[in-house]
What does this fold into?
Amino acid sequence: MSSVTCIEPGPVSTITLARGKVNALDDATVRELNAHFESLAGDAHTRAVVLTGQGSFFSFGLDVPALYDYSPEEFTRFLDRFTRLYLRIFEFPKPVIAAINGHAIAGGLMLVTPCDYRVMAVGKARISLNEVTFGSSLFAGSLEILRGVVGHRNAERVALGGQMYSAEEAKALGLVDEVAAPVDVLRRAVEVATRMADLDPAAYAAIKHLLRDTTAARIRAEETSSIRRFVEIWYSPTTQEQLRRIQIRAS
It folds into this structure.
């Protein structure tokens, strides 16, 4: 059963994470997302993309219980696919708007920051890069993109603190561009995407490439070694014990 839906009604296509109650990212979901973004990049009818989730979560992040029994080699291959996904979004030649309908945690936040514009639901939703709180590291690409969004000092606060931020706090940091009532998040994201879809596609793609190419090259140069270090820490006894206690539940 598909854990991602893609609707292409016109110039704005909508990709929706739809995996269980918290939209946790397993290997099949990451593969589906990569395939949808690859397909839409070459679709002449699609001029912009909205990325969102179903229910009260945008995404919990990586599905830790599903990944816990992976061998280091299997896990490394999964992380390579996952990091390629957020880099694909970062370099996507068309506007990508995040409709953050609910919690965007850890790997969920890593799918949000590469987007061109972010609208987040006010209320209970929280956004966080909380890996440090359960003994996990981060990826070079995730931090390069985060620095570009919020600046170096705020990136340090987000990555080293592991704090859960409300929509209003995230906007003050620069993590999101706009906040909206939960019922209005998707509508507002589609409005932004529709406006951006009217921009000249060739010019938009060229300017976006100029803005992001240097960062993308830096990510490619550093990502493999950061994944290797991530895996070393992930399989350390201390982190494995903390990961073993993580359960997937809705809130």
The chain has one domain: 4-197.
